[in-house]
Amino acid sequence: MTGTAAAPGGSPDGRDPGTSVGAGRRPPRTLDVVPTRRAAPRLATGLTAGVALAVVLLTLRVLSPQTPSEGVPEQMRDFFTLSISVLVESLPFVFLGVILSIAVRIFVPETLFTRLLPTHPVARRAAMSLLGVLLPVCECGNVPLARGLLLKGLSVSEAMTFLLAAPILNPVTIITTYQAFGWDNGILVGRIVGGFVIANLIGWLFSLHPHQERLLTPRFESACRMDHDHPQQGARMRRSVLAFAEETSTMLPALVVGSAIAGAIQVGVSCETLATLGGNPVLSVLALMALAFIIAICSNVDAFFILSFGSTFLPGSIVAFLLFGAMVDVKMLALLRTTFTAAALVRVTATVGLCCLVLGLGVNLLA
Amino acid sequence: MSTDRFPGGAAGVPRSERSRGRRFRRVNAVVLTGLAVAAVGLGAANATQGPRLSSAEINTRAVIARAEQRLVLTANQPLADVEPSQVRVSPSTRIDDVSVDGATLTIRFADILDYDTDYTVSVDDVSGAFTTAVGTLRHGFSTPSVDVFTLLRDTADDPAGQDAPDRIFRNSPTGAESAEVFQAPRIQEYVVSESVLVAATRTNGGSALVLTSLADGGSATVPTPVGGPLHDLRLSEQLLGFRLGGEVDPVTSALVAPLYILDLTDPSGVPIQAVGLDGAPLSVRDFVFVPGSTALVAQAADDQLYLLDPIAGAAPTPLGQHAELRGFVPGTTDLVVADPSSGSLIDLADGSLAPLGLPAADADPATTAGKLVVLDEDRYVQQFDRVDYALARTTIGSELLLVDPSGTERIFRPTSETSRIRDFCVSPNGQLLAIEVVPLDGVINDDDLLPAFSDMTTYFVELSTGTTTRSVSGFLPSWCR
Which of the residues B2, B5, B13, B79 would you substitute to probe the A interface, choosing the one with the greatest number of A C-beta atoms within 10 Å? Predict the structure, then answer.
């Protein structure tokens, strides 16, 4: 690891010191899952099991009554409805993110990021925070993509900057926010500028860590290291299929668990209760941040969701909702936990939360 | 955060690495502490901040056209209840109602506001629903000017020896702008709305009805029934009313004529003839549209008043017999009617009749009372004429008196004592008077149903001050229709 030997303040190539996962004395290489001869039989077994499971589920659905929910308690029905809505909303973006991640890992030349990104760390993170303009996926889709970027050799701070900024600084989110609020009360500007500043602040803070790879889970870190030490060989398409299986088997359980937690909290905490706090200049910010955390709605559509609260809540609280929800929520934390340590996520959540609170209160004071 | 997996303090870890680890933790702590302090400070500032105005919304075109219009002020936070006494408006105008809904404060003005005037609305001591601090909401807005039209008849020949055309001008009563909007060889009369001008022109074969768009100047002639010249045009919303031909009643000398209504939005362009209770065509002495509606009040030959809505096709509603229709109190649907001994107000909302107890004017007994325009329940303007037979040519001098319970005040008198007022009317908002003045040597053009005099001038006068804001050549100001 170059970071351990680099002088404080930056490495000679201008990148964050000690940050590149899998970066050694030689240039970073493609880091993929280790190929084995048993991979093909495993894949066939997995596919067979998957098809069998799908057949079983379809059979169950066909044989089950048309209104199976009648005997289920109302809260349980709410739980399933809310959880499944979060899951269904996120699923396409997760798959899109996985596909983009594979494209980055397998089809993008290794030297592309080195050639295109600025060499100065600050400018490099700023460029990463604008990458969402080219990759407009929801925040949940950014997690597999960020994993791909990490495997490609980008630093944790750079990947984190991308993760936090891309859900906001992408054309879909900007257009939907503009459609919902126009230029009213600085909500759109607050979201764009706030997203950029907060993402780069977190990126800078993480860049100060002497061993950024230790912000990753041991499993992901070891996968990176193994991938680096034993780069995968073989046809690109085969490697893509294997990487797809690997990423989806990591992401989907996390997404299901995150969606279930989001559904459970929404059943327990009434959104109407939070809405009653909408008129208080201070509590409204906290209430909408809490709402953003538990409803775990995608950043591409959250502006239209909160538009219905626009007349109840103050503009600062809406800015805080649009920022905090796009960066941190229950589902996102579950997805991020596949990659980052709990301590790193606590640090991110605390910093992003305080930043959004300050920005929301500031907008309420000035708007 | 200590849970980050640092090798901090471990033996064998380079000093520089331990130093960078400490720096990471220190910078994180400083940033988090700074953010927390900023959040607490901003929270305190928010909690102690009084409400401020975020936005304001008012339809300035509507406030000079209709009463009971709203100003909506939106504060930056939900508001506690506001009493009407907390609201100040300059220049002063009456407030009908003040209501609060969340961060929105709605102020309803009782009256139509003045044209071309800068208003300031202040709401004092407003407190937030969740904060204790108070603030002042202040908003200023300017009302637009209004257009009033006049007709200039020209009976002279132009330089080419042709009969000069009659022209209709659009004027600003408080500014200096005037522009010609329509001309025709002979214009009998006209009415105008915000978007269209309808002129009754004289042709060789009789009358024609010409519609002119005020937006692009495009004109079209509308086919009209035969049976005599068109006269007494009235316009409300998209409905045009007119009378056709008619006969003079030998007893009252009033012209009684059938009434037609034309829906300008109806592509067929066929006017509907008003009918009475028996379903037979109704001949009327006078009629007037109810402001802002498709209904009208017509006075039949027997003085019976009917409330009609020919487009809706509802049966006429009798309103009683009265000698004279005097129009509506500005900004209301209160109809003023007059009988030989008294005047009354008919509230068209419920059909109730209330005697009009107007104070008597303190006028020179040598003058003769003329037209009376009611401004509100105890305030009116009346014309008084003084006829002087002493000169070789009999002269008539006129003046307008404003009468209210506090007394009588002369509001207007022509500069020349021998000029007379032929007609006058009040602007829809009750702010200005439009007064037609005929000079002593004005020559009548009596081959029209609505004759005019040469060199007629229309004056615009502020009712509150008696100041003449402007005078323009021509007559028949559109407010008189």
Answer: B5
The pLDDT, as a whole number, for residue A3 is 34
Q: Is B19 in contact with A208 (CB distance < 8 Å)?
A: no
For the stretch A307-346, what's the b/e string if a residue is b when 16 or more beta carbons lie within 10 angstroms of its beta carbon? Answer: eebbebbbbbbbbbbbbbbbbbbbbbbbbbbbbbbeebbe
CB atoms within 10 A of CB B186: 18
pLDDT, tens digit, 9 for 90 and up, residues B398-434:
999 999 999 999 999 998 888 899 999 999 888 999 9
Q: What is the pLDDT of residue B58?
A: 96
Structure tokens at A357: 């609170």
The residues, any chain, with a CB within 8 Å of residue B325's CB and separated by 6 or more, are: B286, B287, B288, B297, B299, B305, B335, B336, B337
Predicted confidence (pLDDT) per residue in B199-244, tens digit: 999 877 678 899 999 988 889 888 888 878 888 999 987 899 999 8
Query: ∠ at Cα B437 (B436, B442), nearest 5°?
Result: 125
Stated pTM of the model: 0.63
- Rounded (5°) CA angle B359-B360-B365: 165
Q: Dihedral (C-alpha) A349, A351, A354, A359: value to the nearest 10 degrees?
A: -110
β-strand pairing of B104-109 with B166-171: unpaired
- Please count the CA atoms within 13 angstroms of the CA of B9 that sit on its side-chain side: 2
With CB atoms and an 8 Å threshold, state whether B6 touches A354: no
User: CB–CB of B16 and A8 under 8 A?
Assistant: yes
CB B76 within 8 A of CB A367: yes
Low-confidence ranges of chain A (pLDDT < 50): 1-37
Interface of A to B at Cβ within 8 Å reads: 4, 7-8, 17, 185, 201, 205, 208-211, 214-215, 279-283, 311-312, 314-315, 341-344, 346-347, 350-351, 354-355, 357-358, 361-362, 364-365, 367
Mind telling me how many Å the CA of B469 is from chain A's nearest CA?
41
The residue written with tokens 């909160």 in the block is: A306
Return the closest-CA partner of residue A128 out of A67, A190, A203.
Answer: A203
The two tokens of residue A259 are 């969606």
Across the interface, which of B1, B16, B43 has its CB nearest the CB of A282?
B43
